[in-house]
Amino acid sequence: MGPTPRRARRWRWTALLGPTALAVTAGGALACPASAAGANVDFGTHCIPPAVAGIPPIDGTTTANVAVDTTRPRVGDKVTVTYTVVTAAASNPTELALPADIMTPTGKVTLGGAQTGAVTVAGPKKNPPVPGKAAFPSFSMTGTFTVTEPGRITLSPGDYNIHTSYIMELDTPCTVITPPAPVSVTVTATDGPPAGTRSISLGAASGAPGAGVTVSGSHFTPGAAVTLAGRAGDTQTADTATVTANAQGSFSGSLVVRDKATTGIVAYEGGSWNPDRGAGPAVYTVHDDTPVPGNGQKLTTTVKAGTLSMTQAGDSVALSAVDFGRGGPATGRLNTVTVKDFRGGPAGWSLTGEVTDFTGPGGRIDADELSWTPACAAKAGSPSACQAGSAGTVGDSGATLASTADGTLTGGEFTVDAGLSLDVPAFTPPGAYAGVLTLTLT
User: What is the residue range of the signal peptide feature (predicted)?
Assistant: First the structure.
């Protein structure tokens, strides 16, 4: 069956901290690209403490990872890179305890493979208190680079510097002893349009065996040879034709459909069907003209493609209260979200979330203090399996709550949940604090 176009939907959840509540209102469409987290890698690091510390250089091990906002960019796209130092090789070099929010990290991410160079990344001035001689906490830095070459591009964590602004300005630079560090994540850049943007339409939804149907396409690679083919469920039929996309990436061609088992038509670039480089299947029905035997009656039916949608149970969530002077996690659970994918096509879906800062009478609580632990389950009989997003920070840059992969035939009904935790700083002024959590289904 052919899919209907993906529709993005957004729900806003307003979270109040104190006695807390999350109120829900419907919003407009907004797409939020899911990020791809890299693997944690270890590498030897040479760190030079500030001269005032009076201690020699430190040779240790850094554990870090690199994440990107897309693993399938095309040439000319800008890719956002997040470099997270999970465990730094260096530590607070003095006996003096460092207060919160005095660390500003900067660093480099090394590119290799099809494109070489370095990406400059920087983090916010944000950290929990660091006791004297204690290890530096984990921190993240972000930056961007523009894709200039097609092919596989590797990203490895590089040198980084920890700058502290307390009493005096101090730096602790850490360099990779044997560069480059191991590869954390790889992206594959293409010359053509990004996956999921190609589309086709048919001049007719049905026809007799041997009839031709007009297939029109857009957003293909300009000048590319495009194969038009019939599909019988998960299998390609012998009915094929070839057209060439024009300078705008569009085409119009005719496909003669003879196979009575055909249920859809696809168009793709390359030697075989690939949903990343194709579009469809678009629904097409071949009228069975087999003669009905005497005293017989032909029975037919049609399975109609539906839509991608989501609903949520309830319209409020209460996060637990915390004590002034102690702070800590204000916890709760996201109202269950039900995703129904009744499109009957090859496309999967992604459910993402992003949150604003929590504001109140005494100031604000940063958006990065909200984290979640997602869970996802598929209803029995669903063609697709549901993958829960990774536990961690939601923040204003967004995170994946749940998703399903593309496939030959996708769909089903899914329930998505998450435990919520807002890390409230110890001396946050008393009062109610509110933020907006936005969920986006694409």
Answer: 1-31
| Distance between CA atoms of residues 253 and 265, nearest Å | 12
Q: How far is CA 94 from the centre of its chain?
A: 40
Each residue of 332-359: pLDDT tens digit? Answer: 999 999 999 998 877 889 999 999 899 9
Q: Where in the chain is the domain with CATH 2.60.40.230?
A: 199-286
pTM: 0.47
Closest CA to 226 of 215, 235, 210: 215
> What is the distance between the alpha carbons of residues 122 and 131, in angstroms, rounded to a whole number?
24
Token pair, residue 316, equals 């409020």
Distances (CA, A) of 2 to 155, 266, 269, 282, 405: 37, 9, 18, 4, 17
Instruction: Look up residue 413 and give its amino acid.
Output: E
What lies within 8 Å, CB to CB, of 13 at 6+ separation is 22, 23, 24, 317, 334, 436, 437, 438, 439
What architecture is domain 41-183?
Sandwich (2.60)
DSSP state of 369: G
199-286 folds as Immunoglobulin-like (2.60.40)
Question: How far apart (Å, rounded) are the C-alpha atoms in residues 141 and 82?
Answer: 6
